[in-house]
Amino acid sequence: MSSKDVSIPPVIQTSRGDTQLATFAAGCFWSVELVFQRKDGVLQTQVGYTGGREGKTTYDEVCSGTTGHAEAVRLEYDPKVISYTDLLTVFWNKHNPTQGNRQGNDVGSQYRSAIFYHTDEQKQLAEASKAERQTKYEQPITTEIIPAGTFYAAEAYHQAYLEKGGQCAAKGCSDAIACYGI
């Protein structure tokens, strides 16, 4: 019998009228979530699945490669504290956007690089940042920039996984992030 909490939490929304949502995929969602948790102005994070077929799904289904979903992080942020451009910088610095359907040893379409924009302004900023970032790579950036669709929260045991495992999620923390399997 597994002791993992496989319940599905509600999908986060904006908690105030002056906050915004952002959604990013950059490999295994655990470390991507932790890097954003540490940023001032990020009010809450949630890992889950998006970019694939409609309908609730599970981690095992996403890992099978049959859903088309990416492991992603949805976050609420205060744009008076951290700008979307700053969030994009965090995103680009977190991963290698030229690897296609993988990040390091994690291979599969669920580990692809993607920016799921919530507004036209986010789309424009994402496209501009991708063009600027491309100047730093010889290989083409494979990051998708697509509209944010339905976001499916991952099972509860995935939420804040690395923080629950003892890694620092405090604002401003710069400790190295170690990702490890379940």
Low-confidence stretches: none
Q: Quick check: average pLDDT? A: 93
Proportion of helical residues:
10-25%
Q: Kindly name the structural category.
A: alpha+beta
Per DSSP E runs of 2 or more residues, the count of β-strands stands at 8
Cα Rg: 15 Å
Strand portion: 15-25%
Largest sheet: 6 strands, mixed
Span between termini: 15 Å
The number of helices is: 5
Per-chain topology:
Blueprint: E1 20-26, H1 29-37, E2 42-50, H2 59-64, E3 70-77, H3 84-94, E4 102-103, E5 106-107, E6 113-117, H4 120-134, E7 144-147, E8 152-153, H5 161-164
Parallel strand pairs: 6-7
Antiparallel strand pairs: 1-3, 1-6, 2-3, 2-8, 4-5
Helix pairs in contact: 3-4
Description:
With 182 residues, this protein is an alpha+beta fold. It is built from 5 helices and 8 strands; from the N terminus they run βαβαβαβββαββα. The strands form 2 sheets. A 6-stranded mixed sheet has the order 7-6-1-3-2-8, with helices on one face. α4 links the parallel β6 (113-117) and β7. The mean pLDDT is 93.
